[in-house]
Amino acid sequence: MGSGHSHQTATGQHRKRLVAVLSITLTVMVAEVIGGLVAGSLALLADAGHMLTDAAAVGLALLATAFASRPATPERTFGYQRSEILAAVVNALALFGVAAYVLVEAVKRFLSPPDVSSGLMLAVAVLGLIANIASLLVLQRGQSESLNLRGAYLEVQGDLLGSAAVIAAAVVIWATGFTRADAIASAVIGMLILPRTWRLLREAIEVLLESTPKNINLAHVRDHMLAVPGVSDVHDLHAWTITSGIPVLSAHIVVDDSTLEDKGGGRVLDRLYDCLKGHFDVDHCTFQLEPMGHSDHEFSHHP
Q1: Where in the chain is the domain with CATH 1.20.1510.10?
Q2: Which CATH class is domain 10-208?
Q3: pLDDT band at 172, cuts 50/70/90?
Q4: Where does 218-297 sit in CATH, by number?
Q5: Distance in angstroms (rounded) separating the CA atoms of residues 34 and 11
Q6: Would you say 282 and 216 are in contact if contact means Cβ atoms under 8 Å apart?
Q7: How far apart are CA 182 and CA 172, in angstroms?
Q8: Secondary structure E strands in the chain
Q9: Which of 16, 175, 236, 281 is the most buried (most CB within 10 A)?
Q10: Predicted confidence (pLDDT) at residue 148 exceeds the cutoff of 80
Q11: Does residue 133 register a pLDDT over 60?
């Protein structure tokens, strides 16, 4: 059996970015709550609710990172790294709840529109837009490496578009007095949340179901492994993800008799590990070396 190990989670590598975004988000959220209440704007309050969810999501990601850094134990051989994925699921479910609430309230406001202070609404929305741009720049680098950072990035994107919708609504109310624009902007914010939240939840569920990572083609992996000198066959080939940035692979490797007789099993393991690390960026691999015909004695095996 051979294996390579790398247990630093993707979210953990970008912890400072999350802390910075959390600080920005909380500051703007408080400003939008105050501004929404004073101005009578549901759109501002909706965006503040989205930001509250963002803050909770980032807080969950930071908490999950702390758990993920804890060492493995005999009971939890991969430690707590999956806690990052669980945080992503909680994040997505919370976002669905926020979207539903905003949409219901938007309908009520559209049917019975209250007075709205467009000037204050516009000022706070511009502040939110600037803050969201800053947060996007902070998260840009890490969002492709971690589900939690990607979730935060997508939420900030939604906030940015939401701030733009609030700005547009404030301008319309100021120019025409059409106060239903506030409810329309709120509905837009609610609808913006849904598709990105679904994608985040789907990706997290795929990790929990131990689906093959999207960037790993098992047919290509098999071809590369079969090209290693001494390897006659590969079966029971599995690839899955422990958490963002940590793919894992295992396989049964049939080694030809001459290689085994020459005590070349170690060389085969080294070559397989180098192959998977170099071509597919998978450095946690577990291989079972078998002589020819051994698979006939196994209860069952997968392709």
Answers
A1: 10-208
A2: mainly alpha
A3: very high
A4: 3.30.70.1350
A5: 32
A6: yes
A7: 9
A8: 231-243, 246-255, 285-290
A9: 236
A10: no
A11: yes
